[in-house]
Structure prediction request, 353 residues.
Amino acid sequence: MIKDEKFSINKNDIKVVASLLVIFVTTCAALLYLANRADITAGDDGTAAAENTAGRRGSAAEGSMAGRNGSAADDSMTDRDGDGKQRHYYAAQQPSVKLSHFDPNTADSTQLLALGLQPWQVRNIYRYRAAGGVYRRPQDFARLYGLSAHKYKQLLPYIRIAPEYSMTAAEYVSRNSPARQTTSDAWQQEKAIASSSSKTTSAATDKIYGTAPSSVSPRNRKLSPGEHVSLNGADTTALMRVPGIGRWYARSIVRYGERLGGYVSVDQLMEIEDFPADALPYIKLGKATPRKLNVNSASLAELRKHPYINYYQAKAITDYRRLYGKITDINVLATCSDFTERDLKRIAPYIEY
Prediction:
């Protein structure tokens, strides 16, 4: 027994206290262990539940995206970076192409973009039209800057050029002129006059021109076989003496000669629409002195006015002068793809250098 002045403890008391301490420590350790196990279990359950929820939500989102875009696998690509994390890349949706008939002279930007053309290509078409350019043939659309051969072949069957753009203004007016329709009937009558006797000729002439047979002057009398008029020297009155040539054709001959700069061949009359070939034997060329067009000084507008030079050929001439200098002979134009051999033969008498 331990004795002290203040207190005293027996050995039995010491054993009891030690036992209680051991029990207390053991109990605390057991409680801590159970608490940790409960936290771990709860964490695993929460993680699994979160993963299941995220999986269901992800599947639903993927299904929704697949329903809208066709297939999520087709629209995205997955890659892994250096840290092993997944990165998703989504492909841009291409605009749908709707092929339909169109006129490049009048189609608006909405229609042109729907055909699959790029915005900058549509702007080029607008600039070309604003500068006075006209697509007269479907093949002219191939000149669009940046247009690939594949795209051109795809659009070619759908190009439709309106009649008013497929011909010049002068050709359109002459084709739809009421005077032309009236003169066509007169030509049929005049053709009958040429094959009839002189007596019938006088009667028919009286019917058309309102003159009595006895009063028909030599200037109004139709030519007989073997007689001729000079193509470059005749006026409308002289030309109307040719069987088959009425007032409209006579004016057309004079106007076309002025545009050409003079005739160099009688066969050029066949370039006038519906010109009667039966009238050619009564016409001789006469003195041919064609007016020359200087290809080194004429402007683009002046070159275009000639019937044998279209817009692209005139532009090829001005582009050559700008890039390479003066044009010295017709062989220089032969190097331009816009001129065919027939074109060069036709314009040769009308140009100078």
